[in-house]
């Protein structure tokens, strides 16, 4: 399927936007009039630039508030429109968008509106131009695509058809299945946008909070299915008004946009049983193969892992890389990075077919990772997550053969530790939605409900993306814009957190200090057995309970940009101790600032 | 009146918040339980710290979802509450906030809820504690303060009263005048918050978008009047959940908060005819006395002013400061700043009584400006605006005597120029609301409707604050978080913009280039006389029209962080050419990047 994007989705000037769209692989663009007016290049230059870049100008958006008006005003509107049709000839585009009148319509009579649409279409026909009429969700008299379709039928001109926009239809809760009854040759254009579930007036929601497909709450796969079953064969075009994308790097946003369309086309094709637009099948992860911590000097991490009860499982035969294991959890320490603080740098996932997973990811457009491989080393395919984390795939469910590259391990784990419960990644505020799309589209995970945690330097937004069986869970955190970067962490699930913490303390481990006030409240909230409460307090462990079970957990100090968490899930507790997260954020800040008393 | 603030309004840890509240002049605080739980200091330490700082702990907020529940759950709730009452004794506070049940209430019967409130009050009485019951706007059964008042009357306990919160009452549109019929001794506490007009679900609106009084759309002056007429004499306390204030510097936010309360108390006292809490009378500005541009090297600004037609009116007798004038507009160029780029640094306003204006500003808490004065120099009182601009007052309406300090002017203006139409200030996103409060509270201006301008690097939010007669207008712009700082500008109103621009061009002036595409669109939009359109295009002037008149304007290039605008208002045009602002922002970016073709 051809892909297109409205220039209003992107930051910068028009020529920058066009270059970025072409570089990201779009076939065409919709040009918003405001972008052309602010450009110093003439329409002829823009046309020529698009031709050189291989971009079609699929649609131009200069008209508004045309139909449903008094005769005098309509004459004036026709004069304005004719000037725009002449401009479109200079631009070399033949399709114009007409949104339903939101401001100046005063005539509620459909026959008047249809007659005016017809007259406009006749004028457009003199210039060889087609008109795509779209019902805006807040249109004065026309706000439903079914009303727009009726007007188009009433006007009955060959060059007058519909533009469908998923936002305007789904935001109002209009049933999209009736799209299938529209004549295919009257579906002139399709605009796609997702959006978060917000109880906000539809105009503000539309103008500021749209998202790329796969990042919001709309069922775009189902929506696109209806449009394709109706016989639409034009481009899939994105029209996403979003305050963030207006600010972020134009090239990156264009790539991000292109990935969302490829994901959507693949999902819709899979749902509809079509072969067009299909990628290699996604590979939902079966488990975490390894987590890699990288940095110039990881001696403090070695010490921490040893005290926690991990076993040193050996050194890599040719690189400054070490392996620690415990139960099914493997942590790789990589000291190839020069001058960087310790951080979670890579993640290995086990899938049924690693090559297919990589091919799927490349098909969507995730950037591949290059890593130098020595002779005989296992080569795992990998891509970069939006936050720069490298994600590797290995054939599973058993752990992969790269372990043979490590030798000389001396100890064995104490048997108390378990498996990777979840890995936490963080992203700057402008990359959050992209990270969610990556989790869903590239990694095959599903988003749980998002939450907000009040930290001492602002709200931290969080969403957990998980595989269907919970074997892989990635917690994505969004730091407040003005706050320093958050550390990332890795949570190890154990059978007995108290035993693990006790043993670790005996080996000299110090956990992140937790305020006494927290334990006083814990006792009040949960009517805990006092001896158990005292045990938690003595070990610095935290506790939560929900309807299905309970949760015991504790945090290590932060080393550079990484810390570990020990978690125990009792019965069917499904959360992550979110009520304890503010305590952790505050304690980490105290530790980072070395605040004692003020 | 005593002032108080909820610790949840501020960023940082609890002890930092307490220090900041004391430094800003608050008399007391409401402590949010989450802040205490995350603190390493014991309740006794917090009590002692507050005593040392001179802060009372006016209220503690640990209870939720207590009343309207099954008997079994209520017993559990009482147990939880008792632990909190014990904690409050350690903290040394005797008033607890109880919000209406939002999550666990299942019993709609008012007599049950009232009986449970009564039982809770009896338990509290054993600890000497009073309960302030508050209707949350999204409470399950109690969401209106009048319902809460009925329950309090039904329960009829001496230590059970009401907490009123302006947000919960005004956001739901409940009539606040009925507050006056509540018994004064039952008004235990008052929480104040403003909020912007948003059509958003009330929970999100409340949790993320509250503002300090004077910054939003609520009539807090009227609201407070009702509460004071009811006989309330407790503290005025702020409870403002706002994503931005959670992130910004705690000391600055506390000062900002304190200023908003002083402003509100003054306004409410003035409206009610009370003398308590009154400041010196505000002095609405009569005109702009001068605008000062400061920087290390202002030669390019001298040249620009000369070409525009300003007259060089002399040098200061003792400082590297020059004066340019034209009509009633005076621009001071100040080269005392070392190492800084040219920028608008100060603004002089003419008022009836400059000393009263300064006293009013100091009463609100605006930080005073210190400036070295030589013998015989005029000393003007001044304060800093939140963005660092210095604002001076001089007795008007005629211009002030400081002009005598300048001598040696050589030229006279060409008579084409006029007066200062508006001065544009910019603020980083976190200071925007504070800037609006400064304009209203300190300068005596009123906010017009705010707007959003799409620029190439994101949306620019803008609000114009003006004096009643429009003689002083400050346009405040908010740059997108990720974008570079915006330049500030100064607009000079003239009678004939075409003549001014023509004369300036003859003197070698180059205006900011405007794209041809803009002029093509102008012709289509307004059916302009072609000769007039060509004249605008030749001079680089822009044009707008509304129902009341028209607007001709043009921009100089940006020098450092400042540019000038020439504006002509035809008939009763009241705007600022907002539709042209995207064109300007794009052209300025092209000029700044020296982009030619890409």
UniProtKB/TrEMBL annotation, chains A, B:
Record GO terms (molecular function): isomerase activity
Family annotation (Pfam families): AP_endonuc_2, Glyoxalase, Glyoxalase_5
Cofactor (UniProt): a divalent metal cation
Listed pathway(s): Aromatic compound metabolism; 3,4-dihydroxybenzoate biosynthesis
Binding site for Mg(2+): 422, 489, 565
Binding residue positions for a divalent metal cation: 134, 165, 191, 239
Domain annotation VOC: ranges: 287-396, 419-569
Transmembrane region(s): none
SUPFAM superfamilies for the chain: Glyoxalase/Bleomycin resistance protein/Dihydroxybiphenyl dioxygenase, Xylose isomerase-like
Enzyme Commission number, as recorded: 4.2.1.118
Domain of life: Bacteria
Catalytic activity as recorded in UniProt: 3-dehydroshikimate = 3,4-dihydroxybenzoate + H2O
Keywords: Carbohydrate metabolism, Isomerase, Lyase, Metal-binding
Function: Catalyzes the conversion of 3-dehydroshikimate to protocatechuate (3,4-dihydroxybenzoate), a common intermediate of quinate and shikimate degradation pathways.
Stated family: Belongs to the bacterial two-domain DSD family.
Protein name: 3-dehydroshikimate dehydratase
Organism: Leucobacter allii
Species classification: Bacteria, Bacillati, Actinomycetota, Actinomycetes, Micrococcales
């Amino acid at each position: 399927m051809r892909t297109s994007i409205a220039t209003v989705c992107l930051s910068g000037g028009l020529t920058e936007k066009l270059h970025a769209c072409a570089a990201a692989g779009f076939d065409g663009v919709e040009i918003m009039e405001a972008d052309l007016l602010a450009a110093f290049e003439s329409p002829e230059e823009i046309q020529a630039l698009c031709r050189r870049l291989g971009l079609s100008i699929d649609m131009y958006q200069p008209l508004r508030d045309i139909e449903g008006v008094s005769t005098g005003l309509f004459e004036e509107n026709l004069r304005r429109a004719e000037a725009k049709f002449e401009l479109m000839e200079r631009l070399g585009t033949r399709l114009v968008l007409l949104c339903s009148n939101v401001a100046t319509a005063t005539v509620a009579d459909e026959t008047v509106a249809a007659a005016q649409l017809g007259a406009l279409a006749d004028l457009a026909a003199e210039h060889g131009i087609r008109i795509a009429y779209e019902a805006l969700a807040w249109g004065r008299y026309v706000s439903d695509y079914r009303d727009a379709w009726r007007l188009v039928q009433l006007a009955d001109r060959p060059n007058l058809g519909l533009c469908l926009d998923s936002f305007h239809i789904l935001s109002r809760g209009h049933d999209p299945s009736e799209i299938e009854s529209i004549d295919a040759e009257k579906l002139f254009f399709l605009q796609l946008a997702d959006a978060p579930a917000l109880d906000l007036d539809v105009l503000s929601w539309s103008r500021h909070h749209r998202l790329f497909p796969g990042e919001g709450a709309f069922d775009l796969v189902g929506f696109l299915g209806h449009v394709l079953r109706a016989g639409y064969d034009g481009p899939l075009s994105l029209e996403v008004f979003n305050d963030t994308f207006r600010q972020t790097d134009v090239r990156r946003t264009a790539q991000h946009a292109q990935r969302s369309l490829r994901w959507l086309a693949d999902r819709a094709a899979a749902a509809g049983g079509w072969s067009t637009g299909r990628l290699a099948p996604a590979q939902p992860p079966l488990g975490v193969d390894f987590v890699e911590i990288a940095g110039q000097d990881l001696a403090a991490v070695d010490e921490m892992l040893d005290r926690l009860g991990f076993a040193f499982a050996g050194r890599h035969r040719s690189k400054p890389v070490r392996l620690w294991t415990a139960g099914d959890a493997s942590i790789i320490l990589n000291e190839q990075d020069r001058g960087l603080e310790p951080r979670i740098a890579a993640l290995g996932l086990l899938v049924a077919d690693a090559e297919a997973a990589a091919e799927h990811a490349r098909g969507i457009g995730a950037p591949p990772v290059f890593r130098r491989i020595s002779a005989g080393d296992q080569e795992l395919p990998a891509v970069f997550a939006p936050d720069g984390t490298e994600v590797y795939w290995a054939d599973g469910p058993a752990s992969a053969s790269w372990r043979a590259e490590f030798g000389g391990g001396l100890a064995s784990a104490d048997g108390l530790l378990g498996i990777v419960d979840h890995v936490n990644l963080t992203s700057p505020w402008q990359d959050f939605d992209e990270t969610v799309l990556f989790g869903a589209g590239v990694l095959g995970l599903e988003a749980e409900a998002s939450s907000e945690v009040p930290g001492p330097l602002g709200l931290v937004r969080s969403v957990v993306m998980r595989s269907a069986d919970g074997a892989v869970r990635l917690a994505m955190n969004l730091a407040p814009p003005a706050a320093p970067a958050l550390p990332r962490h890795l949570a190890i699930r154990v059978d007995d957190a108290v035993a693990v913490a006790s043993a670790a303390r005996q080996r000299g481990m110090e956990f992140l200090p937790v305020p006494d006030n927290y334990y006083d409240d814990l006792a009040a909230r949960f009517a805990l057995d006092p001896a158990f409460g005292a045990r938690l307090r003595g070990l610095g462990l935290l506790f939560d309970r929900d309807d299905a079970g309970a949760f015991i957990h504790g945090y290590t100090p932060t080393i550079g940009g990484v810390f570990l968490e020990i978690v125990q899930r009792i019965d069917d507790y499904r959360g992550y101790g979110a009520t304890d997260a503010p305590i952790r954020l505050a304690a980490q800040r105290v530790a980072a600032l070395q605040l004692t008393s003020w």
